[in-house]
Amino acid sequence: MKVILITGASGGIGEAIAHKLAERKHNLLLVARNVEKLKIQCNEMAEKYDINAQFITADLAKPEMAEQIFTETKQRGLEVEMLINNAGIGSGGEFSELGLQSELEMLQLNISSLVALTHLFLQEMKARNRGTIINVASMASFVPIPYMATYSASKVFVRHFTQALTQECKPYQVHVMLLCPGLTKTNFNSAAGIDGKVGQRLNAEYTGSTPLQTPEQVAQEMLAALDKSKHYIVSGRMNRMASRISALLPNAFLAKSLASSYRRK
Question: What pTM value is reported for the model?
């Protein structure tokens, strides 16, 4: 059975993408940590959209999980025709004051598990001469962000890795796309521990003056870009403008400005 595998699918952008794809009658394999949420999602989507929706419960902050997910797809007889590496988490605050283990687990989730899943499923896609891989980075990948140093660096990796892989995969008819959302109305801040003062200092609070997208808007822009066979999409008009401006300014200047703004607040 052909399926689309989506990590981080139990909420936010991942959940919105799952619904958009289910509307198009794609069978889904959802991956996240919350087993109860996944059960409810799969049952609801199978009934509403008349598709096959399965799930695997996995914590991708653990190194062994990518291999276990790949093995499980083989045991279930599933062909992953599209891989969407959406799972990720952030952190905020002074780097030296953050927990080392949590920072390392974030790197495992944001980088290592993404690389592992991509490597495992890409080999099969190349052999078939078809497939799609979508990696979710962030607007944070365009700027070194003091007080979100590890998170922003992890998303730079995702952006560069994906854009390089795009070219490697062209001879094999495997389409690779990078999605860079901006600040989106999800539980990202609370999961990252940047609620309240830290979020305000990072200009990452959900205020009326902050340009926000809903997960549904991000998912819709992603699918529109995929329909046009694009390899790269920054979601949101204001975010696209910001990414162009940031490309014109030195990283050192941007980092200094963001650090000064944080400390003033």
Answer: 0.91
Strand order of the β-sheet with 53-57 is 53-57, 28-32, 2-7, 79-85, 131-136, 174-180, 232-234
Nearest to 244 by CA among 154, 133, 171, 142: 142
Q: Which residues participate in catalysis according to the annotation? A: 151
Domain count, the chain: 1
Domain containing residue 179: CATH number:
3.40.50.720
| Full residue range of the structural domain in which residue 39 is found | 2-264
78 burial (CB, 10 Å; 0-12 / 13-18 / 19+) is middle
Q: What is the pLDDT of residues 15-39, one digit of tens each?
A: 999 999 999 999 999 999 999 999 9
**What pLDDT is attached to residue 197?**
54
Which two tokens mark 39? 């059960």
Name the token pair of 113.
Answer: 């598990």
| 213 pLDDT higher than 70 | yes
